[in-house]
């Protein structure tokens, strides 16, 4: 009965919509609370209390923030390109949500378990630049435009190293499917054999999401607020949502690529895979906050130097090393078949 | 009732054609580039429908994620006056239309004379082998049968890289570069100095100037007096 | 198992190029001369390797080595090496001595060698792009100079269009024949009722794309400006090896896969050839800049060489191969003389700057005279034999029109070649040129000796060309 219903077109569409909601609602809840936890964590790092006024322990703070943003006036600068100005935050947010379609939450579980999942993720994350560039341009403000150029250059630069890190992982796993990549880590998580790439990925994901210590496009010491300097109200809110959703996405990606995704460590497989994945994501989110509290901001030339002169050669070299190692020791995936 | 894939085929094709037309006709160059991106997206969708998922993703990553960003950068930074660019349109339109008509006629002649040679069927690209996916099959021929061309294309990219650097990179005089080794090997002794400071004494009274003159610490004493004398 | 060794000269050259590139980057000092020497060494080693290759097909028949490919590759390497020697001194004096210059020339040469070995339209295209892309950069190499930047940009834009035409032709051919493999194309070309229109259009576009690189009329518009604007060693380079490679590829494509439909492409080649010969001889008359004059001269020479292709016979191909050999030597020598034209540290390019050269510098004047006579086709210099063989081939196949136009335009061309000689020997002397370096003298004298003494070594060279030509006719 069930199978029959889901095989019709309407049933299929409903099923996909249900699956999408089942992924997106938790992601958005997680996103809302990660802003709360960030402030709490920063408070703790700086010997403060963090938000504690709204609700018990400040737990309803994210909703208060959302309501505040919703009730503010949307200001569109004079001379701005109205349509693109309003489209840019939407692009950012929608892209950040779209990427979740391929993230596997348990064995074989993803809204779309496609063959080229990792390429899909890479493609979607490389599209994130558009939200930023369009926002900067449509604002009709030179500060926003400069901020957009910087952010875009930064994202493109670090995408290159991320690409090579992905190639290393793909070489080891022998598949572009994210579920297969997780399955290939059954015995050994890739953070061990590919440790240098794990580090490169951790740093690059900070840069890719424009987070501290690479948040200079929006840093107070540089151009304040960068590309979204002209945005207010929910338009700004969407950028904010997009940024945190992207952080969650990168955390999920790091978990899947290097920490075995839904695989349980130490044989603790009675706890479901979703929980493990969530735990790993939270760990990476904490890493984001920890780094933000600890490191001073990079200068723009230092940022570019790190990306192009350190990470690019390192990751490129590591691709060669990985491929050579796998070839010499006959460990290429599929070779034993 | 049309099938879902047919529906999506017509949807993607229609949007692709419309946005391609908009690329050419839009007045604002930034809009033109954005329409181009939309066209790429729909082309990727068509690839997906054709079962070429790898090509679809590569189209997005390479063309949308890199090439079009570059276009957008250039178009946004250049102050192109499109009114000026369009000035010649009236004058050249007839010639352009004539050339276009001739080309169209030739293409039409080609289409009319279309015939597939008898042996062509066997030579045409064979479909993906049954037991592997599209990406896998592509990799299998790319790195074996076509490895020579693959390597030559990498040389082409290398030359493009060398060319870009040769034509634009110049050493400017007087730029200061960060020397990380130098920064790391600096010791505290070279940069810091501990002084006994009188309570309430100002910087000027103590004669501490920044940056401190390196040589001749003996000079400090008279300057101190001088500074004190001024006040 | 794949036969990697077939392309070992190309692989060696490419790897050497990358090594020299790394060396140049890491050394950091001024090292252009050293890198040029290293590249010349790599060329010499590759030359030896090419001589030792055995005929075979490799890389799932994308790549072929045979006597024809080897002949072309040796000629390409020799032309590249000669012009590289010319760049040594010129680049340093012009302040553009950077190590990327020889490296780019090297990669261009790899592209040309790939073209010479192409057994598939895709290989042809990839080689062509590698060759051209390097030359775009080289043409704009003197980036501080407006003319050079303009030359690079102009060449890039027009050449990209030509590449587009070529690709269009290749895709049409593929669409109608179902293959791009030269070995399989002949079967696919002829359908049930003759050749299809689409395929013919495809062939025409392929010819157009290659004719652009050859600077044959009507695809010649870029030639004078680019020749004039580019740094002189680059101009010398463009008029030697990068003319040989597209030409041998054109020979291979038209004689090989499309050989039995020669009725279809013969008229195109005839028209292009006649137009090139006419334009090359008449347009050059009014030129005052020697580099522009050489540009028109090269258009004309390509026209003469195409005369040998038009009959589509073995003797015609042999004639073309000999023509290309003599043309490379004459061009390299003539450009060596042009590079020697420096006055007070500045390069001069007007023909009037040569006035009375015989009184101030007799050796240079006599060498240039030799090259001009040879280009005009005066016996017994090398240029004469090139013309002789192609015209003979045309006459043998009954293409009288081509031969007659060729001879008449040769007479017209004599006028402007001999005008230069007249300026050098009979005009009032202009101030003397700067002393030239040994490297420039070396190229001029080596090419001069070749041009002068070619008649004595006629046998071996014709033999090699004949062996190469025989390959195409199976």
Key features of this structure:
heterotrimer; B: 231 residues; mainly alpha; 12 helices; 0% strand; C: 474 residues; two-stranded antiparallel ribbon; 20 helices
Description:
The complex is a heterotrimer of chains A (337), B (231) and C (474). Chain A is an all-alpha fold and 337 residues long. Chain A has one domain. In chain A, 66% of the residues lie in helices and 0% in strands. Mean pLDDT of chain B is 79; it is low at 218-231. By secondary structure, chain C is mainly α. Chain C has one domain. Chain C contains 20 helices and 6 strands. In chain C, strand 3 (190-191) and strand 4 form a beta hairpin. The interface between A and B is medium-sized, with 26 and 21 residues.
Question: Which structural class best describes the helix and strand composition of chain C?
Answer: mainly alpha
Strand order of the largest sheet of chain C: 1-2
Helical proportion of chain A, percent range: 55-70%
Morphology of chain C? globular
Low-pLDDT residue spans of chain C: none
**Percent range for β-strand residues of chain C:** under 5%
N-end to C-end Cα span of chain C:
27 Å
Biggest sheet statistics of chain A: none
Oligomer: heterotrimer
- Unreliable sequence segments of chain A: none
Order of helices and strands of chain C: HHEEHHHHHEEHHHHHHHEEHHHHHH
Q: Tell me the number of helical segments of chain A per DSSP (H or I, 4 or more residues long).
A: 11
Largest interface: B-C, 34 and 48 residues
Shape of chain A: globular
CA(first)-CA(last) distance of chain A: 39 Å
Strand content of chain A: under 5%
What is the number of domains of chain A? 1
Count of separate structural domains of chain C: 1
**Largest sheet entry of chain C:** 2 strands, antiparallel
Report the mean per-residue pLDDT of chain A as an integer.
Answer: 87
